[in-house]
Amino acid sequence: MAAIMIQKTWRYYTAYSNFKQLNFLMGKAKVIQQRYRLWQLKNQTQKKLKKLRADSMRVWNEMQNQFKNSWQTIKNQKRIEIHINSYSVAEF
């Protein structure tokens, strides 16, 4: 009877130790997975921003080239200057 109690206690202790070790490792794996997902999200966001900036610069350069190409006609056209007064805080 005593041998059975000793075996039962030993099996419980080893199973519990293995369970605690597994729990510890699972917690560390979760942290690694979270950090990896965050790193992936950061990289994807940086790539999207880089593409958006490149698209904006392309549009800006096209606009500038169009302006340069039509500058002679713009320069020779009659222009009207309009001045818009700005309001100060005290005038509101």
What does this entry show, briefly?
This protein has 92 residues and is mainly α.
Task: Name its key features.
rod-shaped; mainly alpha; 2 helices
Main β sheet profile: none
Number of domains: 1
- What does the average pLDDT come to? 93
How many helices? The count is: 2
Strand content: under 5%
Q: Please state the structural category.
A: mainly alpha
End-to-end CA span: 95 Å
Number of strands: 0
Order of helices and strands: HH
User: Stretches where pLDDT falls below 50 for ≥5 residues?
Assistant: none
Characterise this structure.
With 92 residues, the protein is an all-alpha fold. It has one domain (2-74). Helices cover 80% and strands 0% of the residues. It has helices spanning 2-69, 71-76. The longest helix has 68 residues, at 2-69.
Helix-strand layout with pairing:
Elements (H helix, E strand, L loop, with lengths): L1 H68 L1 H6 L16
